[in-house]
Amino acid sequence: MSGVVVSLRGVVKNGRATTTYRCAECGNEVAKWVGRCPECQAWGTVEERGVTRTAGRVVAGAPSSPARPIGEVDVESARARKTGVSELDRVLGGGLVPGAVVLLAGEPGVGKSTLLLEVAYQWAVKGGVPSLYITGEESAGQVRLRAERTGNIHGQMYLAAESDLAAVLGQVEAVRPGVLIVDSVQTMSSPEVDGTPGGVSQVRAVTASLVALAKERGLPIVLVGHVTKDGSVAGPRVLEHLVDVVLQFEGDRHSSLRLVRGIKNRYGPADEVGCFELRDDGIVGVADPSGLFLNRRDQDVTGTAVTVVVEGKRPMLGEVQALVTATNLPSPRRAVSGLDSARVAMALAVLEKRGRMSLHNKDVFAATVGGMRLVEPAVDLAVALAVASAATDQPLPHDLVVVGEVGLSGELRRVNGVGRRLTEAARLGYTKALVPPDAGPLPPETRALVAHDLVEALQLLKLKK
């Protein structure tokens, strides 16, 4: 009777390995070729993977280094080193760790290259160790012009225009930098792999080679990545698994504000956010970004409500604006900018049903200030009160901040970190706060208005007719 042994890489029958097939998008393996991956549902990504293993058993070999008690492992070589860009260090968890590979993804023109030129400059200035910037999308002269405009030129900054992986490795041997920046990974190609630059096989092979280089030399590497139409990182899904840190660079073309959001981080928090302002002369970190999202006024204005959101561990104030106007159209307009349209629709439904507010024959427009995107449930109360203020033409107090989630039955639910949110609001001069019950300890300088449901909140603020 013939035996069948399942190995880690394929099926071994009678001591001989059979071929397996692997999805280039998610890495899922199947026994036979299929047109659509059963795991990630991607079409045309399943490729043949040759298997040369001839036995189902692995023989123990000599370890590369003996195991030691964890308390005796040297940690100094793994300490993070600051990049000189404080907001980026915040997201990275203190700086760049030796041997770490960071993937910075973002839309074209958002400012990725400008930020990384600043990183290369600060590294060269403060560390005294060369930084190497490899560009595969522009010529060296074009990058030099941008560096002149932003003032990022130093004798220890090295620049090369390469798109071949072997040439990149040669540049690393010649310069021996302290940090390597590759812009971008989709433009690089490996001579060992077939396929066009940017293809699945090429991106995977180039990234794997650079990760091996980083671990071997203890060299931190920053890779620039493109994104797809839906904002996800372009290329195979295994790309995000290979690297140590994944950062998302976000920003509106019509706003100077830029956010670097941590998606994955093996060396620090994965939910931290860094704020930057993109200027004509470069990019600058914004340590106190709350003022960018507010229109400070000394008088009350209808249709506005101020709330506090938490991005990572950082509380930031944001302003919600609403406009409610009568319409003769059979289907009133509902326009939303910077907010979750589904949550706005639920807030309008709760106002109609629980608050007895007539909105079915009115156009409703809701937006944020400064290009900020407010999507967490803590913004629900601010959206509802801004719409109610616009509908009744009654303003909210200009020194009031509102925080809370609104349920479909109209109840106000507590959100996390209310005390931390209101401390930030009090620092900026907001002395009143409308909060749900059991909000926890609040700052002593804040006067709390507690409402159990949306109807009670409308009555407290005199927004209910």
TrEMBL record:
Keyword Metal-binding attached: yes
InterPro entries named in the record: AAA+_ATPase, DNA_repair_RadA, P-loop_NTPase, RecA_ATP-bd, Ribosomal_Su5_D2-typ_SF, Ribsml_uS5_D2-typ_fold_subgr, Rubredoxin_2
UniProtKB keywords: ATP-binding, DNA damage, DNA repair, DNA-binding, Hydrolase, Metal-binding, Nucleotide-binding, Stress response, Zinc, Zinc-finger
Region (Lon-protease-like): 363-465
Pfam families: AAA_25, ChlI, Zn_ribbon_LapB
Domain of life where this protein originates: Bacteria
SMART domains reported for this sequence: AAA (SM00382)
Chain span(s) of sequence motif RadA KNRFG motif: 264-268
Ranges that cross the membrane: none
The RecA family profile domain, residue ranges: 77-227
One GO biological process term: recombinational repair
Membrane recorded as keyword: no
Residues holding ATP: 106-113
GO molecular function, one term: hydrolase activity
A single GO cellular-component term on record: cytosol
Function summary: Plays a role in repairing double-strand DNA breaks, probably involving stabilizing or processing branched DNA or blocked replication forks. DNA-dependent ATPase involved in processing of recombination intermediates, plays a role in repairing DNA breaks. Stimulates the branch migration of RecA-mediated strand transfer reactions, allowing the 3' invading strand to extend heteroduplex DNA faster. Binds ssDNA in the presence of ADP but not other nucleotides, has ATPase activity that is stimulated by ssDNA and various branched DNA structures, but inhibited by SSB. Does not have RecA's homology-searching function.
HAMAP family noted in UniProt: RadA_bact (MF_01498)
PANTHER family: DNA REPAIR PROTEIN RADA, DNA REPAIR PROTEIN RADA-LIKE PROTEIN
Domain notes for this protein: The middle region has homology to RecA with ATPase motifs including the RadA KNRFG motif, while the C-terminus is homologous to Lon protease.
Family: Belongs to the RecA family. RadA subfamily.
Protein name: DNA repair protein RadA
The organism of origin for this protein: Saccharothrix espanaensis (strain ATCC 51144 / DSM 44229 / JCM 9112 / NBRC 15066 / NRRL 15764)
Gene responsible for this protein: radA
